[in-house]
Known about the structure:
By secondary structure, the protein is of the alpha+beta class. The protein has helices spanning 2-22, 26-43, 96-105, 114-127, 132-146, 155-160, 181-195; strands at residues 70-74, 92-94, 205-210, 222-227, 230-234. Strands 3-5-4 form a three-stranded antiparallel β-sheet, with helices on one face. The protein has a two-stranded antiparallel ribbon with strand order 1-2. The longest helix is centred in the N-terminal third of the chain and has 21 residues, at 2-22. The protein is globular, with a radius of gyration of 33 Å.
Amino acid sequence: xxxxxxxxxxxxxxxxxxxxxxxxxxxxxxxxxxxxxxxxxxxxxxxxxxxxxxxxxxxxxxxxxxxxxxxxxxxxxxxxxxxxxxxxxxxxxxxxxxxxxxxxxxxxxxxxxxxxxxxxxxxxxxxxxxxxxxxxxxxxxxxxxxxxxxxxxxxxxxxxxxxxxxxxxxxxxxxxxxxxxxxxxxxxxxxxxxxxxxxxxxxxxxxxxxxxxxxxxxxxxxxxxxxxxxxxxxx
Length: 235
């Protein structure tokens, strides 16, 4: 019957038959009325199909991005150790989410000069895929070294200094994907670091290493912070 009349037609015929039969009995009439109500409700719902073949689309609402660039929670002075005399106080912490509007705003602009390009290259090869605060921290270590008096005085000389950054080979950089989002982010991070639009680390943080290694020199330094996959140190 359903094949010929459809679900609605078959239900209406069934109801009519029940009403005809139920006219001889009040109880039967009540059953028929209840059946008619059920048919009415069922006809308003979509036909049930095999659950395995049912496709369900869920609409997700993305959370609004944080407006603040700097969080209100200050970092401790030097992580697990006491800060040495003359150490610069740690600035308020930055976060990946909080940095995103600033990164987006700085992905376009004038081309980087050679020095700032070296900073962006270091960020790209050392920290691409890391949260933005981790990328900013790498950029700041390069810049901190250049002004520390302990390392070469230019960004490119810091990055190309032998035995310092493993991606550098004989003073040369590997080829990078200039069309990738990672390179756009690295350039934005370099601009942010140069203009001091946000700070991830104090000025005296000069060293870091990946969290899956434990170099001996780390035991001679003061741990400041772990951001993403890198641990940062001051003397």
